[in-house]
Amino acid sequence: MTAQKALRHRTIGSWSDLQHWPILGPWLRWRHARTSAQAVLLFLALLVLYDGFFGPPLAPKNLAGVLPWVHWRGLVVLALLLAGNLFCFACPFLLPRRLAQRLFRPRRAWPRWLQGKWLALVLLVVFFWAYEVFDLWASPWLTAWVIITYFVAAFLIDGFFRGAAFCKHVCPIGQFNFLGSLASPSAVTIRDRGVCASCVTKDCIRGHVDSEGKLVQRGCELGLFQPRKVGNLDCTFCLDCVHACPYQNVTVRLRLPLVSELDPGVNRSGIGRLSNRPDWMLLVLGLTGLGLLNAFGMVSPVYQFLSWLSQTLRITSEGVLLAFMFLGGIGLLAVAAMLAGLVTSVLTGAPSRWWGFQRFVYSLAPLGFGMWTAHYLFHFLTGALTVVPLTQNFVFDVFGSALLGQPAWQLASLLPMNTVYEVVVLTLAAGFFGSVLWALALGRQLQLGFLAVLPWLVLHMALFLFGVWLLGQPMEMRGTLLG
Ligand code: SF4
Ligand code: SF4
Predict the structure, then answer these.
(1) Which residue's CA is the closest to the ligand 2 atom numbered 8?
(2) For the segment 368-425, what is each residue's pLDDT rounded down to a tens digit?
(3) Which DSSP helix (H) or strand (E) runs through 35?
(4) In the 8-state DSSP scheme, what is residue 109?
(5) What residue owns the CA closest to ligand 2's atom 4?
(6) Cα-flanking dihedrals φ and ψ of residue 300, to 5°?
(7) How is the chain split into domains, by residue range?
């Protein structure tokens, strides 16, 4: 790599390269960009914790009962859809974790038997089960404890194990964001392969050291080597690689979602072949199933279903019934996907009966994310304005005076209900089309006939129709005084 070539790459602009955008570009190149974003979210997290422990117990009147469940979730999916993995980038849980790394200087590797997404998947299922059983959304106090648990877990795990063990192997929110970022219109990527080919230091993965051999900038702790990185999976958008590369050959670039990520048979840096990763496959199934089940838990037919289940199994414990519902729902989806995969394998004469499943199960991801987005957008669009009276009420509680005026509790919805319904159904439809296009494009890439892909299209359609039915049911207005 010559200095002239590096300079040329620095100066050739491109509208898709976000580092060349005014204001945003210089900020992304600033070494403390991430810390500044994390500081903002840390401040908000501290406000939520304060109100959660000391504020009003009624959830719609408490920051902890509304900001995490209405605003944060809605903004997470919007950011993933419209920009990128902004909330991993700005994750406040990683600020204390950085302190832990300085204090304890961890050297231990994350245990091999815990590697992958298994633990995160179990935590995801447990979390959504607990969310329903303990009505986490209705308890500011429990919400505050969930946040504290998150801070402590990130601190302890990354204080004990080197690298980004918490983000890569444990964090359920991170795994959600990784899969959601398949739909994102941006990715952290290299500018020029030729520059990487002639690079000998590979700082983007090893970290950048100064002339005295001291590490001055971490490389990718998630194990993603830029020249072989594919798409967004496992990328927290931390920008360490951007700052570590001595040739400014890493940037954040706009892209067409999904296009580079279609084929699970491609070898990805830090991940390997997705077609050989049962943990990733189950994560996709789990998140897709949970997306539907989480919405099902908020519509009135769930009560009839649980009552039927209770009579059939002769079980009265709500926790056990919900466990059956969650595990049964994900199990049912897994069986349907395996059957679709089996048909694909048989029709293509594949050497293994798992071949079709291993290739096409990932096509469920856009639909699953579409369901999550539709659901979270529903709550966001029907409750976003509650932030106004909440802030007024919070200021009154803390300062004993209505400095921002009397709380305007009548404020809640951003849009009329009919429009909200149309927006969320369109969002789910976009996820459905993403899944259909994924399956068709992958089938074409693998030179399969239409019939071999058909079982997956049928599965997508069945899940889509179930999702539309769910969104058409009266949903609990959690996080507002109408709930
Ligand atoms: S991205 Fe990595 S491999 Fe490529 S030039 Fe930069 S440090 Fe070297
Ligand atoms: S260092 Fe790794 S996780 Fe961070 S932005 Fe770069 S590729 Fe993504």
Answers:
(1) 235
(2) 999 999 999 999 999 999 999 999 999 998 898 888 999 998 888 889 888 999 999 9
(3) helix 33-54
(4) P
(5) 238
(6) -60, -35
(7) 3-268, 277-472
Ligand 1 proximal residues by C-beta, below 6 Å: 190, 195-196, 199, 202-204, 226-227, 245, 247, 249-250
The strand pair at 267-268 and 272-273 is best described as antiparallel
Query: What is d(CA 285, CA 281) in angstroms, rounded to the nearest whole number?
Result: 6
In single-letter form, the type of residue at position 152 comes to: V
67-78: per-residue pLDDT in tens? 999 999 999 999
Ligand 2 pocket (Cβ < 6 Å) reads 188, 220, 222, 224, 229, 235-241
239 Cα–ligand 2 center, Å: 5
- For residues 155-179, one letter each, b for 16 or more C-beta atoms within 10 angstroms of the residue's C-beta and e for the rest, the string is bebbbebebbbbbbbbbbbbbbbbb
Query: pLDDT per residue over 301-353, tens digit each?
Result: 998 999 999 999 999 999 999 999 999 999 999 999 999 999 999 999 998 99
* Residues found in the chain: 483
Rg (CA), the chain: 23
Helix (H, G, I), strand (E, B) or coil at 150: helix
Is the pLDDT at 481 greater than 60, yes or no?
no
Closest-approaching ligand to the CA atom of 229: 2
How many A from CA of 263 to the centre of ligand 1?
25
- Residue type, position 151, single letter: F
Q: Answer yes or no: pTM beyond 0.90.
A: yes
Residues 6+ apart with CB under 8 A from 183: 80, 81, 257, 258, 366, 369, 431, 434
Q: Is residue 281 within 8 Å of 337, Cβ to Cβ?
A: no
Helix (H/G/I), strand (E/B), else coil: 273: strand
Enter the tokens of residue 220. 């990718």
Q: Contact, 275 vs 354, CB < 8 A?
A: no
pLDDT at 478: 58
Of residues 89, 85, 6, 31, the one with CA closest to residue 243:
31
Ligand 1 atom nearest 199 alpha carbon = 8
